[in-house]
Amino acid sequence: MHSPVEQFTIKTLFALNLLGFDISFTNSSLFMLLAVVLSTLFLVLAMRPAALVPGRLQGAAEMMYEFVADMVRANVGSEGRPYFPFVFTLFVFILFSNMLGLIPYSYTTTSQIVVTFVLAAVIFIGVTLIGLIKHGLHFFSFFVPSGAPKALIPFLVVIEVISYFVRPVSLSVRLFANMLAGHTMLKVFAGLAVMLTGAGGIFAVGSVLPLAAIIGLTGLEMLVAALQAYVFTILTCMYLNDALHLH
Hints:
247 residues, mainly alpha, 7 helices, two-stranded antiparallel sheet, 4% strand, two-stranded antiparallel ribbon
């Protein structure tokens, strides 16, 4: 039986080198590109009819749009409207990447910490710059809790600064760990089912149990894939709200 973590191996499809840097096109690159292409096709084809009474595809696209719009409106307010395109793109990309990873023999790009950390780092740097541009030096008051005793302020500032810089780590690890754990469990049960089937006899009958577990886990992973896209996006909205309103 192959190792359950073998599915996360990055494989080079086309070797490329630019000025001494390895920029090879890998299976991870391929499925990130597929997530972009498929999500774009879905939205373009869904909204092309632009019917007053939407069909199923258009209805699904509009529900996705309204879901993210309500999320931004509720967590950031009217000032978050200019950032809606980025938040919506982020949600759709993560959702499609997660769902693509559930297809047999595909690759889950969000199971790679480097991918999720880059997304989290872009968000972290972006909201920090937004806060600095909007508030100037007053942005640093965010690290001083209001109403705190003056004697405790130095300690509280250190804690606030550490918690602020931990944000990209926690944001990236949450998505990466959930995708990694779920797909590893699926691989373990799939390998167990194959072993029992190959053993024959009464063991082959016992393979029904891991197969049932795979079906249940697949349904659970679909829920987790959507939930993690939501969690990543809503935390982005909360960080954006902090930058805009210094809460």
